[in-house]
């Protein structure tokens, strides 16, 4: 299997992180993995964490409330609010840390996500541009290990796609 593209680019002038990641699967299957809770629950957390969805409404104005759960059972809650959706091409969302009820934690950085799905030969390329309000917010998530966490998380998606592609 050839090496799948993974770029993690930080722009401290624009307060953005741009992630480009290639997947060995068709674009509509990768789209489903990003937009359906039963599939997100199987990959959207770095090993050894697992993911569980509390509620999901993948529509403009809808949201996804989920927890990343560590091996001891501690839950770290997140919330994604969907602002714009163009099926299998892109979606835009607002990402936040929250409590189990979905109340946003104002002490933690919020970010805008623009996630774009394109064909790359027989594979899919997902480009995610994450924009933070300030350089401090950007540096907070980098120090929290976002790059390594994302790398491990996307490897779990690779494993899921191998199973789904059979």
From TrEMBL:
Tell me the domain of life.
Answer: Bacteria
Q: What sequence ranges are listed for the domain Activator of Hsp90 ATPase homologue 1/2-like C-terminal?
A: 26-161
InterPro entries with a match to the protein in the record = ASHA1/2-like_C, START-like_dom_sf
For this chain, the family text in UniProt reads: Belongs to the AHA1 family.
Question: Could you tell me what this protein is called?
Answer: SRPBCC domain-containing protein
Name its species. Terrimonas rubra
